[in-house]
Structures are given as structure tokens and as C-alpha cells.
Design a protein that fits this description.
It is built from 15 helices and eleven strands. By secondary structure, it is α/β, with parallel strands linked by helices. The protein has two domains: 4-200, Rossmann fold, CATH 3.40.50.300; 220-311, Helicase, Ruva Protein, domain 3. The strands form four sheets. The chain has a five-stranded parallel beta sheet. It is globular, with a radius of gyration of 20 Å. Helix content is 46%, strand content 16%.
């Protein structure tokens, strides 16, 4: 019998697979974040389907979708909204911004300045937004997908450590292989691209399936040995000579949460070190701030995560 977490991933893969090709790993990552209730940073060059991915996911989740195109002159209120004076009521009414949607794509987040980037911090961590001293709750299952181009850095503002640390996962979208790219051409080469028709073909998820998957993940058993293993990984990242800023406690918690969901998606009743390793790159790599010397030597977060995992002893008794 298929368990809720596996059913959820299968339905996401089937629905998103109708309109996107060659994104199995990305879809798996989105499922992890959705069950773990975290936000996602997506890296990839323009034109690979990030907007279509977010719009289709919103349709599957029966939610409202909003897209924010970040620019250098954008203000925080362009994301959060503003209060507008109502002359009839003689009071200010909230005109909500796009962050109040269920699924929000913050496109090219590093194109806007730190002041505007900071407008996302409270929303990502606390699920609410404060405007003019009034605090408003976001939708219960709000989901933020932020994108950035890792290659075009002219005119960009690198995300600060506090912002990066609030993204549960970083997913990388690369170019599709030739067969998958041919599928894209066959599906979308007619005038208009056909995106609207493709989205209509995607069915919404059954009511309550996401909550059932979360309940299943909450029941997964974690041993003290696995908790110690994750703590050891965090400690190793902080003491590594190539790292100037290692994994925070929030990052260690994110690694544990994602490992728990990974176990549920594999229909396991308990977390093993293999589940931790399976999600480590997506959770840890973007949180590591490398030393200038390490970057000059060509190291990056992914390779350094692998090095750290290789240095931390794997517990034998983790069940």
C-alpha cells in the first residue's frame, strides 16, 4: 500500500512531468520542501522553466500564484503591500502585495537590493508580514520559490548569510539532455508557447494529501545516533579550514527535517545516515561561506559538503 508521502511525490511528478521534462531531481526537492514546510532557492540560467514550474505547482496545490520580478529599484512595499487611506471609513486599508499569495516566485532575487531582500526575512521565517507596525499572517501553506542566475553577476546583490540560511533547500536546474530538450520543442514550439493549455491539463492534488504526508514524516523515528551524526556534521563544517562560516543551528535543523522527510518518501520508518547524506548537498552547500583561498582554488559548496561528509564517522547503530 502506497503511503501518503510516496503518493504525494508520485502525483507531483506525474503532474509536473506533463509540462516539464528532465526535472525529476528538482521535483523531488520541491516535494521535500513542501512536506518540511520550507522555502526553496533555485539556481539556473533563464529560460529553463522556473516560472512554469512554480505556476504548475500552485495549480496542483489549489493555491494562488504570484510572480515578483526583482529589479534594482524595487522597494520592500512592492513585495509586502501598503496601507491605503479609505476616505469613506476614515481609516487605512491594507492593499496586500504579491507575498500574500500561496505560491510566490521571487524571480532573480539577487537583482534587487539588500533593503528589499530583507522584506522576505520575516515572511520566510515566521509566516507573517509586518507593515506599519501591523502584523498580518500569510496563508497557512505559503511557499516561496526564489530564483537566481549563478552566472550573470553584473548588477546583482549577493544574498547575505541570514537570507541564505532561511532557504531550506537550494536546487540547481541545468540544461536538459538532448532527448528531453526535443520533448520541450515538440510540446511548446507552436505560437504562444502553449503554457496555458499545458497548465490546464494538470490535476490538483487530493485534499489533505500534503497534511497526511507531513503527519507520516512526523512519525518517522530518529535515533540519538542520527541526531549526534547531524551535530557532528555541523561541527565539522564550522572547524574546516576552507570554511569561514559553517552550518548554523538552523541549518542543522533543516538537515534533520529534510532527512526525516527523505525517509518518509522512501517509505522508511526511521532515519538513517544515508537519508542524511541524500539531502546534504541541497541543504548544506548554500549555507557554507568559503574562505577566499578556497574559492581561488576552485572549491564550491557542493564539493566541500562531500569532503565534510567524508570526514565525519558514520554511526553503526542508527536504527
Amino acid at each position: 500500500m502506497t503511503k501518503p508521502a510516496q503518493d504525494l511525490e508520485a502525483r507531483l511528478a506525474e503532474g509536473l512531468g506533463r509540462v516539464l521534462f528532465g526535472m525529476e531531481l528538482t521535483i523531488h526537492g520541491l516535494c521535500l520542501a513542501l512536506v518540511a514546510k520550507g522555502q526553496v532557492l533555485v539556481e539556473g540560467v533563464p529560460g529553463l522553466g522556473k516560472t512554469l514550474l512554480a505556476k504548475t505547482l500552485a495549480r496542483q496545490l489549489r493555491g494562488r500564484f504570484k510572480r515578483i520580478q526583482c529589479t534594482a529599484d524595487m522597494m520592500p512595499s512592492d513585495m509586502t503591500g501598503i496601507h491605503v487611506y479609505n476616505s469613506e471609513r476614515r481609516a487605512f486599508d491594507l492593499l496586500p502585495g504579491p507575498l500574500f499569495a500561496d505560491v510566490v516566485l521571487v524571480d532573480e532575487i539577487n537583482r534587487t537590493g539588500p533593503k528589499t531582500q530583507s522584506a522576505l526575512l520575516q515572511a520566510m521565517e515566521e509566516g507573517c508580514i509586518t507593515i506599519d507596525r501591523d502584523t498580518y499572517a500569510l496563508p497557512a501553506d505559503y511557499f516561496i520559490i526564489a530564483s537566481q542566475n549563478p552566472h550573470e553577476l553584473e548588477g546583482t546583490y549577493p544574498l547575505p548569510e541570514s537570507q541564505l540560511d532561511r532557504f531550506l533547500l537550494r536546487l540547481t536546474i541545468g540544461y536538459p539532455d538532448p532527448d528531453e530538450e526535443q520533448q520541450v520543442l515538440r510540446a511548446y514550439d507552436h505560437p504562444g508557447g502553449g503554457h496555458a493549455e499545458a497548465e490546464k491539463a494538470v490535476a490538483a492534488l487530493p485534499e489533505g494529501l500534503v497534511d497526511e504526508a507531513r503527519a507520516q514524516a512526523a512519525q518517522v523515528v530518529v535515533s540519538d545516533a542520527v541526531y549526534s551524526y547531524v551535530v557532528a556534521i555541523a561541527a565539522a563544517s564550522r572547524s574546516h579550514s576552507a570554511v569561514s562560516l559553517g552550518l548554523s543551528t538552523r541549518g542543522a535543523l533543516a538537515l534533520m527535517r529534510c532527512a526525516r522527510v527523505e525517509a518518509a518518501l522512501r517509505s522508511s520508518d526511521y532515519v538513517t545516515p544515508d537519508h542524511v547524506k541524500a539531502v546534504a548537498r541541497a541543504v548544506v552547500a548554500h549555507r557554507l561561506i568559503l574562505t577566499p583561498e578556497a574559492m581561488l582554488e576552485g572549491m564550491d559548496g557542493d564539493s566541500l559538503t562531500d569532503v565534510i561528509l567524508g570526514q565525519v564517522p558514520v554511526p553503526r547503530d542508527s536504527a
